[in-house]
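USER:
Before I trust my own judgement here, I would like a peer's view. Write it directly below this note and I will take it from there.

ASSISTANT:
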Amino acid sequence: MDGQTMAESLSEQELAKRVLRAEQRLDCMETTLAAVTDEIDGVSLSSRCSKCEKSLLLIKDGILYCPNCGDGHSL
């Protein structure tokens, strides 16, 4: 690829299509995750973890916690 990254070798239109597909997959995963938490009694989702920013926070049994870094506190 002559030192180019994959993104650099794509046309703007191809890159836009890839971004759109990634956004659609993300929307699908978020919808699925929200439905799964609705099925699990007493579990819900909150905002993104402010400590690691790599996961949404879970709320269970009055505790708000990050499944990625373990940060959390009681509500």
